[in-house]
Specification:
mainly alpha, 9 helices, Four Helix Bundle (Hemerythrin (Met), subunit A), homodimer, Arc Repressor Mutant, subunit A, about 210 residues, DNA-binding
Chain lengths: ~210, ~210
DNA sequence: CACCGCAAGATTGCATGCAATCCTTCCCAC
DNA sequence: GTGGGAAGGATTGCATGCAATCTTGCGGTG
């Protein structure tokens, strides 16, 4: 993409995922343009892009807002992730380099030590993102990022019970073990459990 | 989206999916703006949008082109569809109205009669799109449209063998029967076979 | 007191203009 | 004859300006 627009999009994406803009926050073009010292044109382009990524929604003549998902949509997003992300992990395992394995190890162990901090969601995003990238399938990565991003916006680990959070972190560690063992099937199974655990705690039990 | 930009995007989307612009065709901003009697601004916005939809790819300072997928990417797109579209059909079946069932019937039977015409791909797109919409899950629809669009660009039924095309059309009819019976499991199974059949003929046998 | 209509301010949508980058082609040196 | 390089044209990227639309606050009316 274009340099300035790319920078604006990246900055906005980071800030939205970091929670700087809460869900539903209004994103005025002029305000963003002023904040980043660019014209409104690249801002509009970035907003368009983020809208397609599922991070913001644009209403004609009414501006852009950070997306708000209904509980139903959140549940659906997990259904999609459950069907794609385990597959991505299975594909990724045989392609992981030693360097990437170490990085995953770092992320998993760090997440255990940092506890409930704001960096936890960042580390989690990196962890899942690394697997998605390592799957080596641009279409898969595109499809998954759209839904994982949308989920992350509403995920801050605050809702996790002590038990659920503990399980989630152990899943990461176990997934790295499975990856080191080269067992894609194992890693895929853990990812499936990982997402079910997340779904149960985020959405609540089956109604 | 904005009125003019929306119109440009829709027009471009239709023309790309209709094959007016072949895969890899250059999409100059000035040319498109002139053709549709708008300024370059909405054209740029539409191209950005279509890029996010996976229909075109934008290279910085080098303009936009209709996407070209490698065989590997096409194969991956089918892997994604195989994991999402049967699920979408299963969800859609209990939600289909009588009117939608009739429409599906029309589409399926029409596709049998028209034979290998250029409208076949359009009808096919409507058929699959109706199921996707009827699933009633915006995130699922978004994820699926991105990959199905990209696949349609490279799909013109020319590569289908007589047998494969026959199977494909019968699948549609059977899917409608399953939907009328309210049997989501049945419809889901046929959709899975339908996609495997398409994958086999479009990609070729397993290497 | 509540509700509807209206006008001013604010914001978005599009057109246009200019600078930056890329592609083409021609020329020159080897 | 071939390869490298530079100038010209063409195209993209961004900034700015203006018209159209929406939001907000106020006044009037029932």
């Amino acid at each position: 993409m274009r340099a300035a627009a790319e920078q604006v999009a990246e900055s906005l994406r980071d800030e939205i995922l970091a929670g700087v803009f809460p869900s539903g926050a209004r994103l005025g073009e002029a305000e963003l343009a002023g904040r980043l010292s660019v014209s409104r044109t690249p801002v509009r382009e970035a907003l368009s892009r983020l809208a397609a990524e599922g991070l913001v929604e644009i209403q004609p003549n009414r501006g852009a807002r950070v997306v708000t998902r209904t509980p139903d949509e959140l549940r659906e997003i997990f259904e999609i992730r459950l069907r794609l992300e385990p597959y991505a992990v299975c594909r990724a395992v045989p392609r992981l380099t030693a360097r990437q394995l170490d990085e995953l190890d770092d992320l998993a162990t760090t997440m255990v030590t940092v506890g409930r901090s704001s960096t936890l969601v960042d580390l989690n995003r990196c962890f899942h993102g690394l697997f998605i990238d390592a799957a080596g399938s641009p279409p898969l990565a595109q499809a998954l990022r759209a839904v994982t991003h949308a989920a992350v916006v509403h995920q801050n680990f605050h809702d996790y019970s002590e038990d659920a959070l503990d399980r989630s972190l152990r899943h990461h560690v176990e997934m790295v073990a499975a990856a080191r063992a080269g067992d894609g099937e194992w890693a895929e199974a853990i990812m499936r459990a990982h997402l079910c655990n997340a779904r149960a705690t985020m959405i609540g039990g089956r109604p």
